[in-house]
Design brief:
By secondary structure, this protein is mainly β. It folds into 2 domains: 11-81 and 139-162, Chitinase A, domain 3, CATH 3.10.50.40; 89-133, Thrombin, subunit H (Beta Barrel). Helix content is 8%, strand content 36%. It contains 2 helices and 9 strands, in the order βββαββββββα. It has helices at 56-62, 157-162, and strands at residues 20-29, 35-38, 45-48, 70-75, 89-93, 108-113, 116-125, 129-133, 143-154. Strand 1 and strand 2 (35-38) form a beta hairpin. The longest helix has 7 residues, at 56-62. The radius of gyration is 20 Å and the shape is globular. The N and C termini lie far apart (44 Å). Zinc ion binds at residues 162, 164, 166, 171, 173.
Length: 173
């Protein structure tokens, strides 16, 4: 017991809130229970909290958590990768793909768009164009996230100005 209002052990006591940095591991499970994405084999992801750097539902779930907290959150499609749209196909020039020669029907690949990269599914490969399903491969699915908070710290002034984290799990520049 202590008679002061000072936190006893600095950094370990702070919880996730807006403009703090949170580093966390996540694993995503699809509706069939298959692990589709994970940080467990490498660095945890680091985000500047409350700035839309991850899905809103994940930010909400992280709010007020502390280092060491491990929990699950289930997000419906609307809060994850959106509903699956029918006939959401587009014919796209091969130049927008990183490795067009390797494209095959059925595979998932990254497409560079004005809003950043997005995951799409290849339907048909032509000589100069590719037909893709623009739905995210996980669209229409309720996803389960296993989250573990590894660290919570104050952001630097520079990180807040840039609206992203610098260093491990964040931006390097
Ligand atoms: Zn920066």
């Amino acid at each position: 017991m202590t008679d002061t209002d000072e936190p006893s052990s600095g950094a370990s006591a702070i919880s996730v809130s807006r403009d703090r940095v949170v580093r966390f591991h996540y694993q995503i499970f699809d509706e069939a229970g298959a692990a589709v994405e994970s940080t467990r084999d490498g660095e945890p992801l680091a985000i500047l909290h409350g700035r839309g750097n991850v899905m809103r539902g994940i930010e909400d779930a992280l709010e007020s958590r502390k280092a060491g907290d491990r929990f699950e959150v289930t997000l419906p499609p609307e809060q994850a990768y959106g509903p699956r749209k029918d006939d959401f196909t587009q014919r796209i020039s091969k130049k927008y793909f990183r490795q067009p020669a390797r494209l095959k029907p059925g595979m998932t690949t990254q497409l560079s768009t004005e809003e950043g990269t997005r995951s799409v599914t290849v339907l048909k490969v032509g000589g100069k164009v590719v037909d893709v399903d623009m739905n995210h491969p996980l669209a229409g699915q309720t996803l389960k996230f296993d989250l573990e908070v590894m660290e919570v710290r104050e952001a630097t002034r520079e990180e807040i100005a840039h609206r992203h984290v610098h260093g491990p799990g964040g931006h390097h520049h």
